[in-house]
Amino acid sequence: MSQSTSQKIPVTVLTGYLGAGKTTLLNRILSENHGKKYAVIVNEFGEIGIDNDLIIGADEEVFEMNNGCVCCTVRGDLVRILDGLMKRKGKFDAIIVETTGLADPAPVAQTFFVDEDVQKNARLDAVVTVADAKWLADRLKDAPEAKNQIAFADVIVLNKTDLVSKPELAEVEARIRGINPYAKLHRTERCRVALSDVLERGAFDLDRILEIEPDFLEAGDDHDHDHDHHHDHHHHDHGHGLKHYHDEDMQSLSLRSDKPLDPTKFMPWLQELVASEGQKILRSKGILAFHDDDDRYVFQGVHMMLEGDHQRKWKADELRQSRLVFIGRELPEQLIRDGFERCIVS
Amino acid sequence: MSAFEPGHPASIASVTDKVRPVAIGAPVTAVHFLGERAAFVGAEESVSLVDGEGAISKVEVHGGGILCAASDGERIVMGGDDGKLVALNAKGEVALLATDPKRRWIDNVALHADGAVAWSVGKSAFVRGAKGEEKSLEVPSTVGGLAFAPKGLRLAIAHYNGATLWFPNMAATPEFLAWAGSHLAVTFSPDNKFLVTAMHEPAMHGWRLADNRHMRMSGYPGRVRSMSWSVGGRFLATSGADTVIMWPFASKDGPMGKEPAMLAPLQARVSAVACHPKQDILAAGYSDGTILLVRPEDGGELLVRRRGPTAVAALAWNAKGTLLAFADEDGDAGLLAF
To answer: Do A88 and B65 touch (CB under 8 A)?
Structure first.
């Protein structure tokens, strides 16, 4: 029997390059006085000091699915562990999966799209990436895994900010934004971050895809900034030294249209796009206004896997604007823009 | 068993009034018979032994989740997330068989007719012979399922991209049967001629052991979680579809090039199957809580349980085939005597 979203156990994926502070954040989450119980799935079992009753060692086994799609991979160990954990329902409130420093977050996320039993019992809440303010810029140059983790993130905990100067911090933030402008970014020392900023984010919940705007453009942001970010977003010159970078191989692409889309053109186009370019597209999200349709349609995807649904009625005072975001490697920008244009009802 | 009448669920003959209801009061994941008592294996901590009068005695077996269970009729051996392998006998006595030194999960267990027991922890499979000698084998990825062959001391180990056949008492290199994908539950046909795995994707795979020829058994809408051999091994009944899927294994080619029989369709998915040990009859449980007895010969059906709030999680016959035990995911259980 399927359960409603609220009854499903939320799963937070904690990722980050070696030494960034994943274990520090994990211990912070577990030790805080929140009255909640977490089941924690870690790699390198028993080698790191984590104090928790329910701790399970994982082998990070990445399995290809037998559907001819090379990017359709799942974490086989996670399927097994979540199945076993469900026997202890009621003994914990949420699950945290800590990946190895070199892990690609995609197979973890895809496990939640592909596996029926996992879907029935658990929901992916967010991918939280811990990044080292001092060394991230270097890792983005020499470690593709680190770049993947930034690109994939819903939440980025930029840690060890006390070890860098203000200009260095601005530099690394700009590097992050060049790859992923959409993740919520929190600057921390020793991963000191409010738990509400990393847990219960609902980042993969279709009902909560309310806005897909670059994080640093949002007014009234719910996280603490140490300086004001309310600047004109049409210019790259941000007025207080924030540089704007384009990463050479990892980018984000946003599309929008105030005219409605033709669903009979858009849906086949999107499916064809992720089928042919899915290896390059890490994450995709969209809020869509279809022609002759009073409902908002929302979708999200990881590589080739998509899920979407009618979300709710457009409000009377709401601008019926379609917005899409793609984050990926060497995105074929013109191909995507042209394809999207052809889906607009003229 | 004269009440079998083919027909639709609306007009189906019913024995629901003959079922003795049993309230286990906690989720159940498996049921086995120990003598004349039904042993309902809980999702965690305990097994409930229920006699023919419906009296329940609860036995604590694990300090956590019970991840796997196998029975030979004399005892049930279970592995838990407490890293322990325990055995429960018909008297209700619990024995600790093994403890993982790192308290890792015991994921799978299998029992041999001669008393040998096999279990797995991660990528390692262990066999302890009837005399107590222990052997282990590491396979390339986490073990998905274990099964002993009906003849000789031979263990099948299902894992990612195939299955390994291992004679623990022989020095020979284990045989590897390759097939892409993640293989979970595994079973030998009773005549020892075929090996079948239920895969992570909604399909089964089989090998004819004489020549390792492949048998693809696909088309399921959902993962196959329950398999049961009919009397004499003529059919393998499976869950995973909105009918009971029965693959023919009576001929030397098994199901190669043949269509399976599809029985007892309902507007719900089959979640558990158990073939009668003596006759060509099977019990099928569904995701909507329905339980039917089905006679493959003519498709005759008999209603054992009407819909319930959760899926049927476990079904078992006693060795003589005079008692049927069932339980749903919430532990709403029952016994039916013939």
So the answer is: yes
Tell me if chain A has a CB within 8 Å of the CB of B181. Answer: yes
Q: Say which amino acid occupies A234.
A: H
Residue A119 lies in domain:
5-217
Phi and psi dihedrals of A217, rounded to 5? Answer: -95, -10
Name the residue among B105, B203, B311 with its Cβ closest to that of A1.
B311
A200 and A262 part of one domain: no
**What phi-psi label fits residue A86: left (phi over 0), alpha (psi between -120 and 50 degrees) or beta?**
alpha
pLDDT at A214 exceeding the cut of 80: no
Evaluate if residue A236 carries a pLDDT over 50: no
Residue A240 has pLDDT above 80, yes or no: no
Nearest CA in chain A to B225: A117
Q: Assign residue A300 the CATH number of its domain.
A: 3.30.1220.10
Secondary structure class of A273 (helix, strand, coil): helix
Q: Tell me the C-alpha distance between A329 and A174, whole Å.
A: 18
Of A217, A234, A263, the one marking the end of a domain is A217
**pTM of the prediction?**
0.89
Q: What is the pLDDT of residue A249?
A: 84
Among chain A residues, CA nearest to B288: A1
Largest Cα separation within chain B, whole Å, is 60
ipTM: 0.89
Whether chain A has a CB inside 8 Å of the CB on B44: the answer is: yes
What is the distance between the alpha carbons of residues B234 and B189, in angstroms, rounded to a whole number?
A: 9
Residue A113 sits in the same domain as residue A258: no
pLDDT at B215 over 70: yes
Residue A227 covered by a domain: no
pLDDT digits (tens, 9 = 90+) for A34-62: 888 999 998 865 455 666 678 888 888 99
Q: Do both A156 and A20 map to the same domain?
A: yes
